[in-house]
Amino acid sequence: MTKSQQDEHVNGERQRQMILEALSSARDGLDTRALARRLDLHPNTIRWHLGVLEDAGLVSAHPERRHERGRPSIVHRL
Q1: Which one in 3, 15, 17, 63 has a CA-CA gap of 20 to 30 Å to 35?
Q2: 44 against 69, higher pLDDT
Q3: Which neighbouring-strand residues pair with 76?
Q4: Rounded CA gap, 5 and 3, in Å?
Q5: Is residue 61 helix, strand or coil?
């Protein structure tokens, strides 16, 4: 593994840890946009890391309960 690959790996692990910490403090869970704002990361970055965390069984995702019309947000929880 090159130095650049090692740096990317460490940075990715750090970002996933930040996501887990944010979700642990959010009793009702958070959607992608809320996580992106809270962590100052791009929503696509958040989605990618959430996929990794879901695959590892660390995060669950469920549609938000809504009483309005429109597509529900996906809420992520530990």
Answers
A1: 3
A2: 44
A3: 30, 61
A4: 5
A5: strand
